Each structure stands twice: as C-alpha cells, then as structure tokens.
Amino acid sequence: MASRPFxxxxxxxGNPDGTVGHADAHRSxxxxxxxxxxxxxxxxxxxxxxxxxxxxxxxxxxxASASKSLRALERPLLxxxxxxxxxxxxxxxxxxSLRPGYNFASQSISVLSAPxxxxxxxxxxxxxVVDVLVIAFAVGLWLTADExxxxxxxxxxxxxxxxxxxxxxVFFPFRPGEPTSSLxxxxxxxxxxxxxxxxxxxxxxxxxxxxxxxRWFSLSILVxxxxxxxxxxxxxxLFVAGGHPGSLVGxxxxxxxYSFYAWLGALALAQLKAALNHRWx
Length: 281
Fold this sequence. Notes:
With about 280 residues, the protein is an all-alpha fold. The protein contains nine helices and no strands. It has helices at about 20-35, 40-55, 70, 75-100, 120-145, 150-170, 185-210, 215-240, 250-280.
C-alpha cells in the first residue's frame, strides 16, 4: 500500500498540483518590480532597517539603543591616554622645578613625591590624575575591544599598574633619606616593580593585537626600552668609575616613562581608528 503524502496540494490558478506556472511567476516578478519603484516601498524598507538596527547586538554594526549613551563615552575615554601623556610630562617639569637643586639626570622621579619635599603636593596630585586617566582609558579600551582578548588583557594590566602606582605614591612613598632596605622603600619597590612589568607586558600584547604599523611601533618601543636600560646601567658604572658622584637613574626612569606613555598615546590613536572603521560607522 502506497504511503499517503502528509500534505494536500492546493490548486493555484488552475494547477491541481499546487505549483505556480512560469507565466504566474513572471507576473509576480513584474508586480514586485513595479512595487519596488514606488515611494512607499522605500519607506517600508527604511522602517525595516531601523528596526533591525535597534535590535542588533552591541558587537554587530550599529549599537543597540540601550548602549548608545555608553558608546558616546568611548571616544573621550580613549583620548584619556593622550591626556595622560601630556600630564605626565607637565608633572615632571613643574614638580622638578619646585625642588631646589633637583637633577633630572641623576635623581629618581620618586624623589619629587617624597615626604617633606616641596614638590610632593604637586607631584602627588599629578600622579593621581595620571592614574585616573589611565584607568579611564583602560575602560574605553575594554569597551571597544570587541572580540580581541589581547586588548582586554591590556586594559586589565593598565588598571592593575595604575592602582599599584597610586597606592605606592600615597601610602608608601619613596624616602631618599632612608636606605633602600628600609620598610617604606621596600614596600615602595614591591608595588612599583610589578607595575613596570605590567607596562612591558602591555606593550608586548599591543603588538599582538594589531597587524598594521602599531605592531612594529610596539616592537620598536620594547627594543628601545631594553637598550635604554642597558645603556643607562652601563653609563652609571662608567659615571662612577670616572670619579663622578651619583648615577644616571633619572635618565633611565624618564626614558622608560616617556617611552611607555608615547606608546600608550599611539595605542589610543590606533584603537580610535579601528573603532571608527568597525564600530562607529
């Protein structure tokens, strides 16, 4: 016994098998083409497009309406990295000029925020502003990272480094009058050293996150940092061996700090361009 179909064909325009003939299909195509040319067709398509944009997820094309206010903050947050670099340079120049006899080449940056120093209020205030700007940039980087885990890892490293540095400067400032092995200076180094390691890791991850000019820029910054540290260390030994007191720790620290914030500003510009092409169009 033959099996019976689970559906019953419905006659269409006289066709008992329920199919549409070639002539009927041609007439339907002509009707659709005429409707497409009408103004109400474009209005209907516009309404469909707007409805699709409103229901689209945040990571696809245009954002959902619920996240529009958050998306408006992404550009200012990313630009905080450029502002942080400017504030860092201003802090070094202004605070250094407030401390009599300060030597930018041989004295550490931490001396400017040492307890009792005339430059501590200014240096401390600028340091906290820079840390807040770095954290704000990290938030913007996280929001615009999309599926790039390396960028989110950089954001986490930046927040951790900023919190460690601000805690070290506020609660455990470097005391130049005490030996390095003192409790205060040991805690200061213990909190500052991981933050510097976070800088190096962030630069390395930044080179992996991009495939354009920024990858080579990150690599060049890493090489420059290692060369700067080597030359500063070797120069310090030659400086002392030549009978000159002091060291070149000021040059070494400033080379590291300025190189990192130059890289951070470049990262902000690279991410701004990437977000402009893929998120804000």
